[in-house]
Amino acid sequence: MKIKRSERMIDMTYYLINHPHEMISLAFFAEKYHSAKSSMSEDLGIIKKRFDEEGIGDLQTIPGAAGGVKFVPQLKDGDALRKIKRIAEMLSESNRLLPGGYVYLSDLLGHPYVLKAIGQIIASRYADKEIDAVMTIATKGVPIAQSVAYYLNVPFVIVRRDSKITEGPTVSVNYVSGSSARIEKMVLSKRSLRRGSRVLVVDDFMKGGGTLNGMKTLIEEFEAELVGVTVFAEGKFNGERQITDYDSLLYVSDVDLKTKTITVVPGNLFNES
Amino acid sequence: MKIKRSERMIDMTYYLINHPHEMISLAFFAEKYHSAKSSMSEDLGIIKKRFDEEGIGDLQTIPGAAGGVKFVPQLKDGDALRKIKRIAEMLSESNRLLPGGYVYLSDLLGHPYVLKAIGQIIASRYADKEIDAVMTIATKGVPIAQSVAYYLNVPFVIVRRDSKITEGPTVSVNYVSGSSARIEKMVLSKRSLRRGSRVLVVDDFMKGGGTLNGMKTLIEEFEAELVGVTVFAEGKFNGERQITDYDSLLYVSDVDLKTKTITVVPGNLFNES
User: How far is A31 from chain B (nearest CA, A)?
Assistant: First the structure.
């Protein structure tokens, strides 16, 4: 059954945003809508324009007989910054302050608006990189990894601090926890990451970078490749960080227990380059 | 600037699927597109029809001056069963078998296809229930909770087995772990759940139901209300389960270490009622 262009726009939009970073052939749509490839091409041109104008993302067109389209979610810089400023505001609410100067952020990492924004921003940052898997460490990194993986349309893997029987054979590495200078252990199920995978590492919070450095070592053990490291928030750290090449969405620049203020600004991802 | 109907269809589709379970007024769209409410109404009628025909979900229309639309993701029963059968096949691969008859499933819970399907199926099951939060226990339940919460557009909360300094004040309960008949502890950050919240509990795997029963107790401690319990997979259990009112997406009906076979069938969610 043939349907109208306006109806096809609904279907195609839904299909594309549910299959990000996936090459879809013109033939697929042509067959689905019993229409000529040329008319599918026109439809996709309209969608491309709207996605661009609305800041939804980039609809990349691959010409030729084997051609098709690929939807790459891509926030505009201004939209990303606007969202991160809103999240910075949430994070700087004074009632988040915990004894010892810790900041409560678990609720934010379960909040649909925040998770969508984090996922979109990090996925935009790596939109033109080839990534096979997102890696994080349990527990608070998981929602971040999942949201990024959703927009990149790749799987994510969870590193744990203990090995469980349900994980099967594991590989473990030791690392130096930056904040306490203790030796700790992290494990990853052997079958969760293929050799040669290109891996993006994400986590919720970074101080000394010890945990992130541990994941870097783990990636080497798997003979995989580290593509990048992005954290939701970084805190102030007096001393040398174990990792220097990373992006942060937020920077908790000051925590003052006396005045009960938390100062949060956009992280280095938003630095002008 | 006025844009054509076919272009509006793209925008509106994108907006609606990014705001599930949210009431959006006709006035919002009318203002955005500088158009009459009646013409927005027509647009939404077309979208409603396509969403229905394509099995994307239900676009509920609320009439009257304060009226609007609400997009409720809702898989058709046939689509849900088809997806779950494909996942059952993945889960019954013999190389998932671990010593002791455990089944490896961590990769599935990091797989975009599987997570979308789980989220859509469970969210469809509770489409007409009022839900304020999804609850799960770390670590493997987290991806399930997040995906369900995504489609219901509500936050999720993570119960932990240990209390961490970054969680602030917590409430803890003891529970009897069904498989080992040991007393264990679970904790939830006090500020993560408001009194009176209507809670949907999800988890990855159920045997005796002890963990789920623990979360039930925790919900009572928070003076919140349990709306339902859904697990990704349930295993065979000899004895009385601690919980009887639950849904499962999959039922691991047999694990045979000798022949190395795992038998997985659709769970009780798919029983004809």
Answer: 16
Query: Which residues partner with B186 through β-bridges?
Result: B173
Q: What does each of the 273 residues of chain A score in pLDDT, given as a tens digit?
A: 678 999 999 999 999 999 999 999 999 999 999 999 999 999 999 999 999 999 999 999 988 777 899 999 999 999 999 999 999 999 999 999 999 999 999 999 999 999 999 999 999 999 999 999 999 999 999 999 999 999 999 999 999 999 888 999 999 999 998 766 799 999 999 999 999 999 999 999 999 999 999 999 999 999 999 999 999 999 999 888 999 999 999 999 999 999 999 999 999 999 975
- Residue A217 sits at the chain B interface (C-beta within 8 Å): no
Q: Provide CATH code, domain B77-270.
A: 3.40.50.2020
Give ipTM to 2 decimals.
0.96
Q: What is the DSSP secondary-structure string of A8-25?
A: HHHHHHHHHHHSTT-EEE
What's the half-sphere exposure (Cβ side, CA atoms, 13 Å) at B169?
Answer: 4
The answer for residues whose C-beta is within 8 angstroms of residue B77's C-beta and 6 or more apart is none
Task: With CA atoms as reference, report the closest residue to A131 among A113, A114, A149, A147.
Answer: A149
CATH level 3 topology of B5-73:
Arc Repressor Mutant, subunit A (1.10.10)
Interface mutation vs chain B, best among A2, A8, A10, most B CBs within 10 Å: A10
> Which residue has 């839904």 as its token pair?
A14
Residue keyed to tokens 């839900």: B131
Task: Give the residue from A29, A146, A170, A187 with the most B CB atoms within 10 Å of its CB, the best one to mutate.
Answer: A146
Question: Both ends of chain A: CA-CA distance in Å?
Answer: 52
* Cβ-defined contact of A142 to B142 (cutoff 8 Å): yes
CA distances B179 to B132, B144, B233, Å, are 31, 22, 16
Q: Give me the sheet containing B23-25, strands edge to edge.
A: B23-25, B68-73, B57-62
Q: Say if A211 is an interface residue toward chain B (CB within 8 Å).
A: no
- Residues 6 or more apart whose Cβ sits within 8 Å of residue B21: B70, B71, B72, B152, B153, B154
Per domain, the residue ranges of chain A are 5-73, 77-270
The SS3 assignment for B187 reads: strand
CB contact under 8 A, B189 and A157: no
Greatest distance between any 2 Cα atoms in chain B: 69
* Nearest Cβ partner for B56 among A14, A102, A104: A14
In total, chain A counts a number of residues equal to: 273
With CB atoms and an 8 Å threshold, state whether A46 touches B6.
Answer: yes
SS3 B246: coil
DSSP labels, B91-117: HT-GGGB-GGG-B--TTGGG-HHHHHH
